[in-house]
Amino acid sequence: MPKRSEEMLVDLWMSLLLVWITCVPSISTTPIGGQSRTAQTGGSAAAASGLGEGQRLLSRAKRGWVWNQMFVLEEFSGRDPILVGRLHTDLDVGNKNIKYVLAGEGAGTIFAINELTGDIHAMKRLDREEKAEYTLTAQVVNADTDEPLEPPSEFIIKVQDINDNPPQFIEGPYRASVPEMSAVGTPVTRVTATDADDPVYGNSAKLVYSILDGQPYFSVDPNSATIKIALHGMDREVKEEYFVVIQAKDMGGHMGGLSGTTTVTIMLTDINDNPPKFSKSLYEFGIPEDLPIGKTGGKVKASDRDIGENAKSTYNIIEGDDLGTFEIITDAQTQDGILRLRKPLDYESKKAYTLKVEATNVRSEPGSGGPFKDTATVKIVVEDADEPPVFSKPMYLLEVKENAPVATVIGRVAARDPDSSGSLVRYFIDRHTDLERQFNINVDDGNITLAKPLDRETDMWHNITVTATEVRNHSQISRAIVAIRVMDINDNAPEFATEYEAYLCENGKPGQVIHTVSAIDKDDPSQGHRFDYRLVQEMQSNPNFTIKHNQDNSISVVAKHDSFRRQKQEIYYLPIVVSDQGHPPMSSTNTLTIRVCGCSRDLVVQSCNVEAYVLPIGLSMGALIAILACIILLLVIVVLFVTLRRHKNEPLIIKDDEDVRENIIRYDDEGGGEEDTEAFDIATLQNPDGINGYLPRKDIKPDLQFMPRAGQHSGPNGVDVDEFINVRLHEADNDPTAPPYDSIQIYGYEGRGSVAGSLSSLETASSDSDQNYDYLREWGPRFRRLGELYSVGESDRET
């Protein structure tokens, strides 16, 4: 099979490189170690003839390399290993006792060396994109002993690039946007492709960009890959989205280069280049005249081909609504123009309206000359509706004098039917606002009259609601508020402001002011109150008191002498007549109570009772009451103290009738000796068999029936207490119904006033033989018998 032209060129280049490396004469090179070495042919023979003499080898340190920086093509895929280069030393002059050793990156795996000839071969396929160069070390050693004949030298094998990687768009696919109607040449976006080949060797990484799809709308710069507008007047409303395919080709775009593509989605963004447009030039609406204020009467719509903020519009009424009956607002969601009512409609006064409405864009583009607008005509026809009656006033204010006679006409309300038919109207009072039914209204003419007399002092204002209803349609009802003010007349007499009680000092001087009196009047005259005070006719020449008029509508009561005494008269009653200046004048008689009291020198009242004279000097009734209360309190404290002491001294002993326990026996004395018979029932000991020889248990409730044992009988008079106790102990131990515990009786109370200690011998450290009981005789007659018993016991033990 014939080779391709590229492979033939590579083979030819490799052959020339091999010939150059092998045929080049000995060249003085500079190894990486920095020492300059020169080729020498004579020295190599001497070294070869004296390989066994180490001293001759060490004396010859110079050596010269015949080699150059080596290259190898990547991706070589021949059947045999490719020759990279050949190493040669001055010592190699036909002597067969030397060999070449290769070390470093890839030595033995990727690169192999012929030990005899120094030829280096690449054993594997290389990829420059994985590793571009390899650093190796070459050395000549003795073939027999592996001893180095020369120091190692370092060289580099570089992998030469071929165009084996296509361009790639790492960040693709791309998305970009550009405003619609942009000028030709406006940059949209920039794409970037990368090539893994060597950018400094040949044109393998030199990229050229071109557009495969997207013309004639867009173009791309071949070097910078910037996408630009290529067509004038690109309108978003015509087409919003474009798909552009961009190609990147290496080898400078020449034939044989590799290529890669990416897609760019370009969106045209909106600008405000379209005006709002009404769908119709004339809108017609029918609105009933009873439409409530603020309700919708109709909707208009101006469409805009733009989107977002550019499509928003506002609506205005520019003609035909001089009275401001209507308003139009914008619905933020639907962008509709909503026509609403601002004032009530009246079919009878105006039956139609013609409005001119304008829609204006909210925002405009700079340099466009202002926002876009559009207008439309709106014709509104008012439809007749059955309206409720209309009062002449929304609120009426009427006045009537208090105590006016029943059926007095207070005022009149009036309402009419606004419809063209003009129905009759009937009037009623809403009784929820007149619960006491104090007013009436004429159903035909609307005259309001009194049903009950009114009192201004009780209620000054009355607010009622009057309804007007059409005769032909009772569902049509209107309401009006009627405020009725009750006017004042002089129908109340003045009286004291409060129930006054004055105090007069016995040691007072003539002419002293006893009290100041004022009056009030429930009436409310327009000129204000003015009262006249005088004593009653019988008291005009009162020998004790007189009155003095003040300038503030009050009077002062003055004493005429200083001979007032409580023993003579304790209380005086002074009637005073108070009258107003109304029409007609009203008056009332009020009584002032004056109490004679004992006072200090400073005329401070101290006592006003006659009983105060019988009290000791310096003590008043209040002081005696306080002293008596203290005495009673002390007595109560003493009684409580005595009671608590008595309760405290009582023994903490449970009474027999309160003790419900059956296994506790109480001892409340010092020990009664033979007289103590409460600890046991002697009758039980004398009759051990009990009733029929069986004693019932009281501490438990037996589950099994316990039968009395036979064969245990004692004579009626021959009671053996020791045998009885042993028998009962044996029965208790073998009784299956007995509780698993013993009954323990604790005696912790030694009796009142006892001077003796504990009688128990459990706490004593001495034995019975060391104990002396003579001290018991010193404790009194109660313990003398006990001492004699213990003394007898001691003498018997000694005997």
From TrEMBL:
PROSITE patterns per the record?
Answer: CADHERIN_1, CADHERIN_2
Q: Which domain of life is it from?
A: Eukaryota
Q: Which residues form the Cadherin domain?
A: 89-169, 170-278, 279-391, 392-496, 496-618
Compartments in which it is found: Cell junction, Adherens junction; Cell membrane
Is Phosphoprotein among this UniProt entry's keywords?
no
Q: What is its main location?
A: other
Look up and give the membrane topology term: Single-pass type I membrane protein
Q: Where is the signal peptide?
A: 1-29
Q: Which GO terms describe its biological process?
A: adherens junction organization; calcium-dependent cell-cell adhesion via plasma membrane cell adhesion molecules; cell migration; cell morphogenesis; cell-cell adhesion mediated by cadherin; cell-cell junction assembly; homophilic cell adhesion via plasma membrane adhesion molecules; morphogenesis of an epithelium
Q: SUPFAM superfamilies attached here? A: Cadherin-like (SSF49313)
* Cellular compartments per GO CC: adherens junction; axon terminus; catenin complex; synaptic cleft
Mark the transmembrane ranges.
613-642
Recorded hits in Pfam families, A to Z, give: CADH_Y-type_LIR (PF01049), Cadherin (PF00028)
Give the Gene Ontology MF terms in alphabetical order.
beta-catenin binding; cadherin binding; calcium ion binding
Q: Which UniProt keywords apply?
A: Calcium, Cell adhesion, Cell junction, Cell membrane, Glycoprotein, Membrane, Metal-binding, Repeat, Signal, Transmembrane, Transmembrane helix
- Asked if the Swiss-Prot or TrEMBL record annotates the protein with the keyword Lipoprotein, the reply is no
Q: What does this protein do?
A: Cadherins are calcium-dependent cell adhesion proteins.
Would you tell me the protein name for this molecule? Cadherin 8
Question: Top-down, what is the taxonomic lineage of the species of origin?
Answer: Eukaryota, Metazoa, Chordata, Craniata, Vertebrata
